[in-house]
From TrEMBL:
Domain of life: Eukaryota
Pfam families: Pcc1
Descriptive protein name: Transcription factor Pcc1
Family: Belongs to the CTAG/PCC1 family.
GO CC term (a single one): EKC/KEOPS complex
PANTHER family, per the entry: EKC/KEOPS COMPLEX SUBUNIT PCC1 FAMILY MEMBER, EKC_KEOPS COMPLEX SUBUNIT LAGE3
Gene3D superfamilies: Alpha-D-phosphohexomutase, C-terminal domain (3.30.310.50)
Organism annotation: Mollisia scopiformis (Conifer needle endophyte fungus)
GO terms (BP aspect): tRNA threonylcarbamoyladenosine metabolic process
Length: 115
């Protein structure tokens, strides 16, 4: 995939987070997108995508057509602004995943079957 460099936002990062189900990926997207970027020097977009073999490593994929990967794309004016924005995103992501782990039925079922 070739990405054109945006002269106004030359620093970029794409984070792909594989999740167990498309429903969980969608829930994470909806939970995280409500917080807008505070700085006009940073742009962020979310989407869900279908996994590919090189995106999920050794994980076993049951339905590779399902959009189970949360993709977050960042663009920023400087590396520092990118780092600050991504650090904030990681904090929010940690909270969202913690809630999903504690409360979501699919995650609880997976934990029980592992045990």
């Amino acid at each position: 995939m070739t990405t054109l460099l945006d002269p106004d936002f030359p620093c970029s990062l794409t984070i792909d987070l594989p999740l167990p189900t498309a429903r969980l990926a969608s829930a994470a997207l909806q939970a995280l997108r409500v917080d807008k970027e505070l700085s006009p020097l940073v742009r962020r977009s979310f989407s869900t995508i279908s996994p590919t073999s090189n995106e999920v490593g050794d994980a076993i994929i049951v339905d590779s057509s399902a959009e189970t990967v949360l993709r977050t794309e960042y663009k920023a004016t400087t590396n520092r602004m990118l780092r600050v924005a991504v650090n904030g995103f990681m904090e929010s992501l940690s909270v969202a995943l913690g809630v999903m782990e504690e409360l979501d039925v699919d995650v609880l079922d997976a934990e029980i079957s592992k045990g």
